[in-house]
Amino acid sequence: xxxxxxxxxxxxxxxxxxxxxxxxxxxxxxxxxxxxxxxxxxxxxxxxxxxxxxxxxxxxxxxxxxxxxxxxxxxxxxxxxxxxxxxxxxxxxxxxxxxxxxxxxxxx
Length: 108
Hints:
- The protein has three helices and two strands.
- By secondary structure, the chain is mainly alpha-helical.
- The chain has one domain (3-92).
- The longest helix has 23 residues, at 30-52.
- The chain is elongated and about 55 Å long.
């Protein structure tokens, strides 16, 4: 199985998990896309540095060859899937605001 196929599968699984199974609907929220833009910027910096210097190399038969800032698009897709799955699960297992313990503030 190629890295391209694995990354595409990861994106599909993340979308189904978010929109159908857990119903967190992250992918429909502008704030998610804003946060992802910040994350992908730093992912491109890190990945570009690692792949641009040859520290990390990819088998050309396992990727499409399309790169953004030296990073294969498969890395961006895989990173996207990891972020979506992590946030969707986090939102699902986190207590809702009504279930969180009350915090008491002292007035001065």
